[in-house]
Structures are given as C-alpha cells and as structure tokens.
Design goal:
alpha/beta; 7-stranded parallel β-sheet; about 35% helix; globular; binds iron/sulfur cluster
Length: about 280
Amino acid sequence: MKLGQKLAIVNNGATNSYCDKSDSKQVFGTFEWASHNANFISGCQHDCKYCYSKEMAIRFHKKTPGNWHIEEVRTHSLTRKFKRVDGTIMFPSSHDIHPEHLKECLLFLGNILASGNQVLVVTKPHLECIQAICEKFGQFKNNILFRFTIGSADSSNLEFWEPGAPSFPERIEALKWAFHSGFNTSISCEPMLDDTIEDVIRITSPFVTDCIWIGKANFLLRRLKLNGVGDSVTLEKASELLADQSEENILGLFSKFSDNPKVKWKESIKKIVDIDVPTQKGLDI
Ligand code: SF4
C-alpha cells in the first residue's frame, strides 16, 4: 500500500500528526509509557514465549531458556529507598507480580510510593495480587495507574503464548476489582496474540478509566528462537500471528478504532499508520 493510501485511512477521523521517520531518537517499548523502570526479581513464572526480558537475560547469560521461569528475588532491592522522580516509574518491567512473591511485591511497591512517585503497575493480573494491592494502597489511588496486559480474549491462546499467566476471565475479574475499588485502569494489548482484539476492547472498555494500548508482536521469530521455543507448532502459530498482523490488517484495525478516544497505538503501529513516534520518554501518547 502506498503512503497516500495510508494517509487517506489515517485521516479518517484521526487527530494525530505525521512523522519524519528519520528521527533516530524515537522511543519505544516501555519508554513509551514511563521514564523509569523498577524491578526486584530475575525470572518470571508466566514464561511467555515472546518475552523480551527473557531474551535479554539469556543474551547476557543471566538466565537460560530452561530456568527463566524460576523467580529469584534480589533481596537487597527490598530495602531500597526511592527518590521522587520526574515522570512515571513503571513497575514491574522485566518480571511480573505473582502470588508467590506477593509479600515482597507489596513491600517494594510501598517503597516506590513512599516518596510520592507516580507508578504505572503493569501486569498480567492475578486476582489475588490485585486485591492485595488495592487493599494495601487505597490511600495511593492518585499515584497508581494499573495497566493489565490482555493480548487475546481466548484463554486457550493466552495459555499457549503465556503458559504461566492467568486466564482471560481472571484478568477481567482483576480489572473489574481495580476499577470498582476506585483505581485508574488501562489495558495493554501488546502483543496482540490473535484476531480477538475487538472483543478485548469491547469487554474491557467499561472498566477502563485511562486507555487501551494496541501493539504488534515485535521481533517474534528471533525472540522465539532465542527463548528456546522454536518448535514447529510454535513457529506455525507465529507465522499465523504475523500474517494476522500484516500491514493491511493493521491499517484496517486502525481505521476501525482511530476515533475511539480510549485506544492508543504503540510504536509498532504508529510507524505503519504514520503517527508521530515520541522522542521523549514516558509521554504515554
Ligand atoms: S509476564 Fe512479562 S516478564 Fe513475565 S514472562 Fe511474560 S512478558 Fe516476560
């Protein structure tokens, strides 16, 4: 598809401007959302096949494909005092919040919040964990924005790509819990894991106070190989997913939701539809 055709679709109700893609300072990944990251665990029981943090840990010989799912708490991090920073701190960004280490998570999150920081809590939510966070940090409602990752409305597909993470119904229950507890809520559909994203948007929207981010699966085949999940079944599913996320389909999705004020587009999609990619960390736009 030619650029002129793309712009015709983008202009269909969109309010975004267009970018010079030669700008080498464009931010992507977690820095689209937050200027700082905070973590205290190495490894993640959710063991998502496409995990970027797993890939990095393997590259730098901190973990192996076989032991990434074993969570190692960096106990010295639990006593860390956080200064107040400009912008938002994303927690966690290289692991997740699992019931096994919930106690430590509450301690660590409390330390970040104690100095008045704004925290973006990003997780594939276990209901038990969200209930505990809401109960403990009720007085910090204005400092916390939840971002629940839900890349599909199909639990079997979630289980395939994210074998240790909660089902779709549990994630929705967790979202409702946070919403009804008075917290600010948002969704990340990055990576989209199939073509059920319209269902995710429809089902989650009534309980989202902030926004719903949509993003493609980045560097999928390379990441699967490095993460030790390059078996034929996974590669076949990955090929289907990449076909689902063709430029044509992404433009169709964009056209459908560009007028929805809750829907935002990650860098992987901004590039396709010619929206400016921010050059400053944590702008969350
Ligand atoms: S939940 Fe996040 S950190 Fe954990 S394995 Fe999945 S992508 Fe990686």
